UniProtKB/TrEMBL annotation:
It is found in: Cell inner membrane. The chain crosses the membrane at residues 12-33, 40-60, 66-86, 93-117, 123-144, 165-185, 216-240, 252-274, 294-316. The keyword Zinc does not apply. This is ATP-binding cassette domain-containing protein. InterPro entries: AAA+_ATPase, ABC_AA/LPS_Transport, ABC_transp_permease, ABC_transporter-like_ATP-bd, LivM-like, P-loop_NTPase.
Length: 597
C-alpha cells in the first residue's frame, strides 16, 4: 500500500475514532451531570456548532464574518414563528426546519453575491456580514406581534422531551458536524480554502473560482447555523432578537480566536468552556464576567495570537508516540497525452489585442495597443520602467482591468471576465514577484494548480497529481521533484520561480504570460528556464508573451520583440532590429535624462 494511502486511512480512522468517542461521551454524560448543568450544556452544544462554522470561514478561508449569529437567529425564528402561528407536530416541525434551511441558504447566497464579487476587499465582506445581524434584528423589532418585537416569542408548543434526549440531540449534532468539518479542512478542498486565505489573487489566476467557493461555503455554514438555531429554539421554547444579534456574532468570533483559529476543535472547546462558565458568572457577577471575557480575549490576542489550541497541540506533539504515521509527499504522474497543452483555435491567432487602453483617472497607462501573438511564437515585451508592460499583462488576464479596446483569447472575447474565467480560455500567468502559498507544500501547490482540470475531493486527499510533461520538466530541472513535501516558504528564490512556472503550466494554457520569470536567477537557472520555454513553443505550440529586461536572454529565445514606451507600441521586430534602432535608444536615453534632471 502506498504511503499516502496509509496516511489517508489514518486520517479517516482518527476521524471515526474521534466521532465514536464523542458520541460515547455524549451518551453517558447526562448520567453524571446535574439538571442545571445539563440545561446549560444543551444550549452551549448548539452554539458550539455555529462556532465551528465560524472557524471554517474565518480561520481556514480568511472570511472575517460577523453574520453567523443571523443564520442562527433565522433557524430559531423559523421554529418559533411556525410553532406559534401555524401549528405544531411532526409535519410542521419538518416544514419549519425546511424554512430555516431554505431561508438561510437564500440569505447566505445573497450575502455571498454582495460580498465576494471579484475585486472586493476582505474589509468589504466583513462590513456586509456585520450589517446582516443588525438588519435582521431591526426586521424582528418591526414585526410587531408576529415576531414578538423586542420581547420575542415564548410559550409556543414544542417537544418536551427529557433533558437527556435533548442533550443527546445537541451533542450528536455537534459531534457529527464537527467530524464532517474536520475531514473537510484536511481534504484536498481544505487545501483550496487555505490557499484562498493565504493568496486569493494567485488562487484566482490558477483558475480557482474564489468567489463561488466563498459563496458556497457561506451557504453551507449558514445552513448548519440555522439547524443549530432551530434546535436551540425548540429546546428552550423561547426566541428573542438577541439570538440573531451583533453581540452573539462578536462572541462567536471571540471564542474562535481564544480557542485558536484554523484548529477547528480549539474554538469548539473554547465555546463550550467559556459559555458554560459565563452562565454561572452571569448570575454571580452580571457585568464583571463580560469584562473578564474581554480582558482574556485581549491577552490571548497579544500573547498567543494563534489562540490556546496551537499551544496545547505543541505540547501534545512532544508527548505523543513517535510512530504515528505522517503524511508523505504526493507522487507525480504525467497527464494523459490527449490533455496536453496543444490548443485548437482555427485560423485566428491565440491572442489578439485591439485598441487596448488603460486609464487611472487622468493618467493614461496604455494607449490603443494593437497586437497579435501567434502559436509557436515567443514574443518579448521590453521597454523602460513605467512603460505599461505589466499593466498590459493585467489587461489580458483580467477582463476588468482595461478601460477600452478588446482582447480575444483563442478567438473568444474575454469581455469583463474574471481571472479564473480567462484561465479557462487558456491563459496562464506568472507574476513579477513570486506569488505562492507559504504554508503549503510543493505537492499541494501543484494540486491546487490542477483544480480547474481535476477538481478537489471534499473529504479525502489524492495521493497523486497528474502534470503535463513541460511542468514535470521544470520540476526535474529545478530539483523540486525531490522536494514535494517541503513547504514553499523554505524554498530558495530560484526554486520558487521554478515552482510558479510549473504551477502555471499545470493549468495547461495555450497562451502563457510571463513577467520577468528569470529575475534574481543565476545564469545556469536562466538558461535552463529558457530551454524549457523554447521547447514549449516548438513542441507544444504555445504562444508565450515574455516581459524581460535581460536583452541577452531575450535575444537567445525570442522570435519577435515589441517595445512599449509611455503606454504605446514604439516598435516591433527582431531583437537585432530593436537594439539597433535609434528610436529605441532615444526612448531609453530620454528616460534616463529625465530621471537625472
Amino acid at each position: 500500500m502506498p504511503d499516502n494511502r496509509l496516511s489517508m486511512s489514518y486520517t479517516h480512522r482518527a476521524a471515526l475514532i474521534g466521532c465514536l468517542s464523542g458520541l460515547a461521551i455524549i451518551a453517558v454524560a447526562p448520567l453524571f451531570l446535574d439538571v442545571y448543568l445539563t440545561n446549560i450544556l444543551i444550549r452551549t452544544l448548539f452554539v458550539a456548532a455555529v462556532v465551528m462554522t465560524v472557524d471554517i470561514l474565518w480561520g481556514y478561508t480568511g472570511v472575517l464574518t460577523f453574520g453567523q449569529s443571523a443564520f442562527f437567529g433565522i433557524g430559531a425564528y423559523a421554529c418559533g414563528l411556525i410553532f406559534t402561528h401555524y401549528g405544531f407536530g411532526p409535519g410542521w416541525a419538518l416544514a419549519a426546519l425546511a424554512v430555516a434551511l431554505g431561508t438561510a441558504a437564500i440569505v447566505a447566497a445573497a450575502v455571498g453575491w454582495l460580498a465576494f464579487f471579484h475585486g472586493s476587499s476582505p474589509l468589504y465582506s466583513s462590513i456586509i456580514t456585520l450589517a446582516l445581524p443588525i438588519v435582521l434584528t431591526q426586521i424582528i423589532y418591526s414585526g410587531g406581534s408576529f415576531t414578538g418585537s423586542s420581547s420575542g416569542l415564548s410559550g409556543f408548543p414544542t417537544y418536551y422531551w427529557d433533558l437527556k434526549v435533548w442533550f443527546w440531540i445537541a451533542g450528536g449534532f455537534l459531534v457529527l458536524t464537527t467530524t464532517a468539518g474536520w475531514l473537510l479542512v484536511r481534504s484536498d478542498f481544505g487545501r483550496v480554502l487555505i490557499a484562498i486565505r493565504e493568496n486569493e489573487e494567485r488562487s484566482a489566476y490558477l483558475g480557482i473560482p474564489v468567489s463561488r467557493i466563498k459563496t458556497m461555503l457561506m451557504v453551507f455554514a449558514g445552513m448548519v447555523a440555522s439547524v443549530a438555531g432551530f434546535g436551540y429554539a425548540a429546546f428552550s421554547n423561547v426566541v428573542a432578537p438577541e439570538m440573531a444579534g451583533f453581540q452573539l456574532g462578536t462572541e462567536l468570533l471571540i471564542w474562535t480566536a481564544l480557542g485558536g483559529r484554523a484548529t477547528l476543535l480549539g474554538p469548539v472547546f473554547a465555546a463550550i468552556g467559556i459559555d458554560t462558565i459565563s452562565s454561572w458568572l452571569s448570575g454571580a457577577m452580571p457585568f464583571v464576567w463580560k469584562l473578564l471575557t474581554g480582558v482574556a480575549f485581549v491577552l490571548v490576542i497579544v500573547l498567543l495570537p494563534r489562540g490556546l489550541a496551537p499551544l496545547i497541540g505543541a505540547l501534545w506533539r512532544k508527548l505523543r508516540p513517535k510512530h504515528v504515521p505522517k503524511t508523505h509527499a504526493i507522487r507525480l504522474n504525467p497527464a494523459p497525452a490527449g490533455r496536453m497543452l496543444q490548443a485548437s483555435f482555427g485560423d485566428a491567432p491565440p491572442l489578439c489585442l485591439s485598441q487596448v487602453s488603460r486609464r487611472y483617472g487622468s493618467l493614461q497607462v496604455l494607449r490603443d495597443v494593437n497586437l497579435d501573438a501567434h502559436g509557436t511564437e515567443l514574443l518579448g515585451i521590453i521597454g523602460p520602467n513605467g512603460a505599461g508592460k505589466t499593466t498590459l499583462m493585467r489587461c489580458i488576464s483580467d477582463g476588468n482591468e482595461r478601460t477600452g479596446g478588446a482582447v480575444r483569447v483563442n478567438n473568444v472575447e474575454i469581455a469583463r471576465g474574471s481571472p479564473q474565467d480567462i484561465v479557462g480560455l487558456g491563459v496562464g500567468r506568472s507574476f513579477q514577484n513570486t506569488n505562492l502559498f507559504d504554508t503549503l507544500t510543493v505537492g499541494e501547490c501543484l494540486q491546487l494548480a490542477r483544480y480547474r482540470i481535476d477538481g478537489a475531493k471534499l473529504f479525502d486527499r489524492r495521493e497523486t497529481v497528474s502534470l503535463p510533461q513541460p511542468a514535470l520538466d521544470i520540476l526535474k530541472t529545478t530539483g523540486l521533484d525531490k522536494m514535494l513535501a517541503e513547504e514553499t516558504r523554505n524554498l530558495s528564490h530560484g526554486m520558487k520561480r521554478g515552482l510558479e512556472l510549473a504551477m502555471v503550466l499545470a493549468t495547461e494554457p495555450s497562451v502563457l504570460l510571463l513577467d520577468e520569470p528569470t529575475a534574481g536567477l543565476t545564469r545556469p537557472e536562466r538558461m535552463a528556464i529558457g530551454a524549457v520555454l523554447t521547447r514549449l513553443t516548438q513542441e507544444f505550440g504555445l504562444c508565450i508573451m515574455l516581459i524581460e529586461h535581460d536583452l541577452d536572454f531575450v535575444r537567445a529565445i525570442c522570435n519577435r520583440v515589441v517595445v512599449l514606451h509611455q503606454g504605446a507600441i514604439l516598435m516591433e521586430g527582431t531583437v537585432e532590429e530593436v537594439v539597433a534602432s535609434d528610436l529605441v535608444k532615444a526612448a531609453y536615453t530620454g528616460l534616463q535624462k529625465e530621471a537625472v534632471a
